[in-house]
Write a structure and sequence with these properties.
The complex is a heterodimer of chains A (372) and B (75). Chain A has 372 residues and is α/β, with parallel strands linked by helices. Chain A has helices spanning 10-23, 37-45, 48-51, 65-68, 71-81, 105-110, 121-130, 147-160, 174-183, 198-203, 209-215, 226-242, 261-270, 301-304, 320-324, 356-364; strands spanning 30-36, 56-63, 86-90, 114-117, 135-142, 165-171, 192-195, 219-221, 247-249, 271-273, 276-279, 283-286, 290-292. A five-stranded parallel β-sheet of chain A has the order 2-1-7-8-9. Chain A has a four-stranded parallel β-sheet with strand order 4-3-5-6, sandwiched between helices. Chain B is elongated, with a radius of gyration of 15 Å. The chains are: A alpha/beta (372), B alpha+beta (75). Iron/sulfur cluster (SF4) is lined by residues 317-320, 323, 330, 333, 335-336, 340, 345-347, 349-350, 357 of chain A.
């Protein structure tokens, strides 16, 4: 496939890896956090850790939207779905996230809840048009990539006066999470970030400048193909060697400084910053998520159904929290691959293929010290 | 779920929709978030929406840099 296969060539990857080995200073360690689950997936799938010199450590970050969704939010969605007047729509992976009492949206469906998997917000709008006597709620999750489609759905719903449609908004923001991790200080030592690619397609590279400056850490925004990740590692190694802490863009084929203006405007029109939002693993993170804008309050499921937020602790055995903070690796979890598998996940990191545990289970299980 | 992919717009449709071509499979997607979409453009597709355009010249430049980095070994 064009613009995919060219960025997966094994011969080039080996050449790049050899060159990185020559670039690194053998006297030091390079701890690079790949913020996005997309990178985690590529690193595990293409065995990139094995290609790189030992003193480059790739650390998994909190950039998987399914993984960072706290249990309390999934519980609220399940509560909504179990109402006889509600049809709850969401993207596929969300339905499998384990919540309280061994429930998930899939299990709620088995108990009779009307839960529908959608591929696009347009599908959710269509379900609302087709079911005027039901309340159709879109359970919106995701980073800055999935946010603009939710914004357009809100605008469309208002245009059509779709009175039975609402959005349970759980969209989260990347730069505040990065900042939060760095502000946590000694919790995890990092020398640089492999920054989000598709998120940056929307928000641009500019929002990372403050993170790079404030915490003096380089950020290289990288695409999700294996060669993209390798090139980003080389760019980070060069910055670190030279003592630079800048934002650079490896994924220049789709990312500009200012991002997608049109998409950003739609989001600003329909959503507003929350004071604080709970992330799994990170706890409450200030200004890190979006709620429905007061102008669109009539489509806000949290208001329509008076949903209060409750914090629910993670399963005691699950190490997702520490993994999402970059402190542990999947193999550090006692139940990894035993009680917790992709078919029967105990924690959220095992659910989506971009989760650290799922990526490790599928591709790296037998490689000691493989990517976390 | 954050994964998006590059696809080619093969036909523009009314109401800011378009047909895209993904490895020989065609699908209808929304181009409402893109400025001035054109047939033949490559875009990044995510949850049924094109969220950004792909710049062919930049892609070529990136590939050239990768070649250079890979060749650096023999230098
Ligand atoms: S293996 Fe399962 S239980 Fe353990 S950290 Fe990963 S997702 Fe959580």
């Amino acid at each position: 496939m064009k613009y995919v296969d060219e960025f997966r060539r094994g011969d080039i990857a080996r050449g790049m890896a050899a060159q990185i080995s020559r670039l690194v200073d053998p006297a030091r360690e390079y701890r690079l956090m790949e913020f996005c689950g997309g990178h985690t997936h590529a690193i595990a799938r293409y065995g990139l850790t094995g290609l790189l010199p030992d003193n480059i450590r790739l650390i998994h970050g909190p950039g998987c939207p399914v993984c960072v969704l706290p249990i309390g939010r999934v519980d609220s969605a399940i509560e909504l779905a179990l109402r006889p007047d509600v049809i709850l729509c969401s993207y596929g992976d969300t339905l499998r996230v384990p919540a309280s009492n061994k429930m998930s949206l899939y299990q709620a469906r088995a108990k009779g809840a009307d839960v529908r998997m959608v591929y696009s917000t347009n599908d959710a709008l269509q379900i609302a048009r087709d079911n005027p006597h039901k309340q159709v709620v879109f359970f919106a999750i995701g980073f800055e990539t999935t946010t603009p489609p939710t914004a357009l759905a809100l605008i469309q719903a208002r245009q059509e006066k779709l009175a039975n449609f609402s959005v349970f908004c759980n969209h989260v923001l990347t730069p505040p999470a990065m900042r939060h991790l760095l502000a946590a200080g000694d919790a995890v030592q990092l020398d640089g970030f492999i920054g989000p690619s598709h998120v940056s397609t929307v928000i641009g590279s500019a929002p990372y400048a403050a993170v790079a400056e404030e915490f003096a850490k380089p950020v290289v925004i990288a695409g999700f193909e294996p060669l993209d990740v390798l090139q980003a590692v080389a760019m980070l190694v060069e910055q670190i060697n030279q003592g630079r802490t800048e934002v650079e863009t490896q994924f220049s084929r789709a990312v500009t400084h200012e991002g997608n203006q049109k998409a950003r405007e739609r989001v600003a029109q329909t959503m507003t910053l929350r004071d604080s939002f709970e992330w799994r693993g990170l706890g409450q993170v200030p200004h890190s998520a979006l709620a429905i804008h007061p102008d669109f309050a009539e489509f806000d499921a949290e208001l329509r159904f008076a949903l209060p937020y409750r914090h629910v602790p993670d399963h005691k055995a699950c190490e997702c929290g520490a993994i999402l903070r970059g402190q542990k690796q999947p193999q550090d979890c006692k139940v990894f691959g035993i009680v917790c598998t992709p078919d029967n996940p105990l924690g959220s990191c095992m659910v989506s293929s971009e989760g650290a545990c799922a990526a490790h289970y599928h591709y790296g299980r037998f490689v000691q010290g493989a990517t976390a | 779920m954050c994964l998006a992919m590059p696809v080619r717009i093969s036909q523009l449709l009314p109401e800011e929709m378009a047909v895209v071509d993904m490895d020989g499979v065609s699908r209808e997607v929304s181009v409402a978030l893109i400025d001035a979409p054109q047939e033949g453009d490559y875009v990044i597709l995510h949850v049924g929406y094109a969220i950004g355009k792909l710049d062919a010249e930049e892609a070529a430049r990136t590939l050239a840099l990768m070649d250079q980095l890979a060749a650096g070994e023999q230098a």
